[in-house]
Design brief:
It is a single chain. The protein is mostly beta strands. It has 5 helices and 34 strands. The protein folds into 2 domains: 315 residues, Glycosyl hydrolase domain, family 43 (Tachylectin-2, Chain A), CATH 2.115.10.20; 131 residues, Trefoil (Acidic Fibroblast Growth Factor, subunit A). It is elongated, with a radius of gyration of 26 Å. The strands form 12 sheets. A 4-stranded antiparallel β-sheet has the order 3-2-1-22. Strands 4-5-6-7 form a 4-stranded antiparallel β-sheet, with no helix packed on it. Keywords: Signal. InterPro entries: AbfB_ABD, AbfB_ABD_sf, GH43_arabinanases, Glyco_hydro_beta-prop_sf. It comes from Saccharothrix yanglingensis. This is 1,4-beta-xylanase.
């Protein structure tokens, strides 16, 4: 009797295992079978107030990019240093989960590069999603804490390893090994981006040569002779090939023949290599950040990664309105692309806010102070996008056109133009209810969200948040949103 039950239990377990394997394989194949229709780039923009946050851009052809969310950050880090750089987009093989991992670093806060490299964060910032548009709160993932003398954890990437079924996370850490302190690439394994295995040295160029930026792309068809290709900023932009993520890597070459390096041979000095496979064809782009000249990313393309001599420069590209700094590109299915564009793709009209009492004057920012002026130059200082309120439905916020991610907010009942810092206080201070104009119902007034007894008004041409008690106040608190 017990033997029969044992045999039956084993049979049930085998059938269940077969069904599970079939289900997982089918899900992965179904995801892989969906054609890619677009591209999503995650990036940061620089060391200014909100430059070290998460930005997204979209492309249909992989060369011409449009900023999403009106050029403003899509996600803000509220953990660690409260800034992120070098974001990497990661999709699960089944296409049912996504992660963004990024460097926990904000130079704009006043941190020096030396402090950041030697006494910086040992953690990465992680966001998680099941649909690519609704993201978890950011969390910290300590990846470098187990490295003796680790100074930082920079430029993270991750790739699924089919041999083990988990993910290999790799990043740069500045630490001393064999008496030499420099940046090397380390890796650790994870299944959920919540816990990681111990850090292991991955790439060490030897001697005194450091390496910070490296990124791997998979070529399942083996075009070029390898399944995986790796581009690294190690003095050159070195391209290597391998048939396994953690196997041996063969140097294919570098880009010095194109006048491109990471400083070793001068020329066009670049960093942040970022791979992208073109949809529907065996062709790849390697995007390179021309940081030394401040010109932003440029693509070089190849249909065969087996030799760096196959790369060619391109001029038929555009990067949108914001400067793109070190990030990553994800190929999008039609369903993913539809969700992303529905959430962040619509362009909010550009408006000006006209004074009721001084109709030649418009609300404008000047050195981040806010007032009403005539003949504003440049006119972009008086242009805003009236977007859904940061703090609540049925409200509005005013986002600057020439400083995306900056909003009109009251501070001590005075108005300033400030970068969204992700706090509830900021959201409340930058949110208003649009009501019928206090002096004319055909115009508009704006009631404070967190001080509902106060309204936006001008006083001696300065914008303030005040209680309104008389006819003068009602007139000063009345505006028209114009195009």
């Amino acid at each position: 009797m017990s033997r029969a039950l044992t045999r039956f239990g084993a049979l049930v377990a085998a059938v269940a295992l077969l069904f599970t394997s079939w289900s997982v394989t089918t899900a992965e194949r179904a995801s892989a079978a969906e054609p890619f229709t677009g591209y999503l780039m995650a990036h940061f923009t620089g060391e200014h107030a909100n430059g070290e946050q998460l930005y997204l851009a979209h492309s249909r052809d992989g060369l011409r990019w449009t900023d999403l969310n009106n050029g403003a950050p899509v996600l803000l880090s509220t953990v660690g240093t409260r800034g992120v750089r070098d974001p990497a987009l990661v999709r699960s093989p089944a296409g049912d989960r996504y992660w963004i991992i990024a460097t926990d670093l904000r130079i704009a806060s006043g941190t020096s590069w030396s402090d950041a490299a030697n006494n910086g964060s040992k953690s990465l910032v992680v966001w998680e999603s099941t649909d690519l548009v609704n993201w978890s709160a950011p969390r910290l993932l300590n990846v470098a804490g187990g490295i003796p003398g680790a100074g930082n954890a920079w430029a993270p990437e991750a790739i699924h390893d089919p041999t083990s079924g988990d993910y290999v996370v790799y990043w740069a850490t500045n630490a001393t090994v064999d008496g030499v302190k420099k940046h090397r690439i380390y890796y650790a394994r994870t299944r959920d981006f919540r816990t990681v295995g111990p850090p292991v040295l991955y790439i060490d160029r030897g001697a005194g040569q450091g390496i910070i930026d490296t990124q791997i792309v998979e070529s399942p068809g083996g075009v070029g002779g390898y399944r995986y290709f790796r581009a690294s900023a190690d003095g050159h932009i070195t391209v290597e090939g391998s048939n396994s993520v953690l196997g041996s890597w063969t140097t294919i070459g570098n880009l010095s023949h194109m006048g491109i390096s990471n400083g070793a041979t001068g020329g066009n000095v670049v960093e942040g290599p970022m791979w992208m496979k073109f949809n529907g064809r065996s062709e790849w782009a390697l995007w390179l950040d021309q940081y030394a000249t401040g010109r932003g990313y440029m693509p070089i393309t190849s249909a065969n990664l087996g030799s760096t001599r196959n790369f060619a420069t391109r001029t038929d590209y555009s990067l949108g309105g914001t400067r793109k700094r070190h990030g990553s590109i994800l190929n999008l299915t039609a369903a993913e692309e539809g969700r992303v564009l529905a959430r962040w793709g619509a362009t909010t009209p550009v408006n000006r806010i006209q004074s009721y009492t001084h109709q030649d004057r418009y609300v404008r920012h000047s050195n981040f102070d806010v007032r009403i002026d005539p003949n504003v130059s440049p006119v972009q200082d008086s242009q805003f996008r009236v977007v859904p309120g940061l703090a609540g439905s049925g409200t509005v916020s005013f986002q600057s056109v020439n400083h995306p991610g900056h909003y009109l907010r009251h501070y001590g009942f005075d108005f300033v133009l400030a970068a969204d810092d992700g706090t509830a206080t900021f959201r409340g201070d930058a949110t208003f209810r649009q009501v019928a104009g206090l002096a004319s119902a055909s115009w508009a007034s704006f009631q404070s969200y967190n001080h509902p007894d106060r309204y936006i008004r001008h006083y001696s041409y300065q914008l303030r948040l005040d209680p309104i008690t008389d006819a003068v106040g009602r007139a000063d608190a009345t505006f028209r949103v114009t195009s």
